[in-house]
Amino acid sequence: MLSTKMIAPEASKRVGVLVDLIGDLDVTLAELARDTFADLAVRGATDVFLATRHVGSSSADGLRVLAAALVAARARGCTIEIDPGNRRMRTALGAAGISCARGAHANRPPQARHLLIARHSANPNRSRLSIL
Questions:
Q1: d(Cα 52, Cα 58) in Å, to the nearest integer?
Q2: By CB neighbour count within 10 A (0-12 exposed, 13-18 middle, 19+ buried), where does 85 fall?
C-alpha cells in the first residue's frame, strides 16, 4: 500500500516572503491574499510572514476567506507567521481562529522578498499587488 507524506524542504532552500496586507480586509483583499499564497506554494515551500498592521477594518467574510487561505497554504507546505500589528487586528484574527505571533516580521530572513497587497473600499475597482 502506498502512502503520501509531505516532506518540507531543507531550511536553507526555503524562500522567505513578507506579505503586507494594506487597506480593508474584505472578501476581495482576502481572495488576493489567497491567490498569492497559492502562487507562492506552487513555486515551492515558502516561509511567509504576514503583516496586517496596515489593515484599516475587517469584515467577517474577509476573515473567513483569509483563514481558509492560510489553512490551504499550510497544507501545501508553506509555514506562515502572522504579525497583527495591533490589538484590534489580533482580536479579530483570534476570533476567526487565526493564531498570531507578535513581531513575526522581525524573524524573517534578510533576503526575504516583500509583497504588498493593497485594496481600499473607497475605490473598490483598484487593487494592487506590488513586489519589492
A1: 10
A2: buried
Identify whether the C-beta of residue 112 lies closer than 8 Å to the C-beta of residue 132: no
Residue position matching grid coordinates 507524506: 5
CATH topology for 14-131 is Transcription Regulator spoIIAA (3.30.750)
Which pLDDT tens digits describe the chain residue by residue (132 residues)?
Answer: 444 444 444 545 677 888 999 999 999 999 999 999 999 888 876 888 899 989 988 899 999 999 999 999 989 888 888 988 888 888 888 888 888 876 555 566 666 788 889 887 665 555 555 554
Sequence ranges of the domains in the chain? 14-131
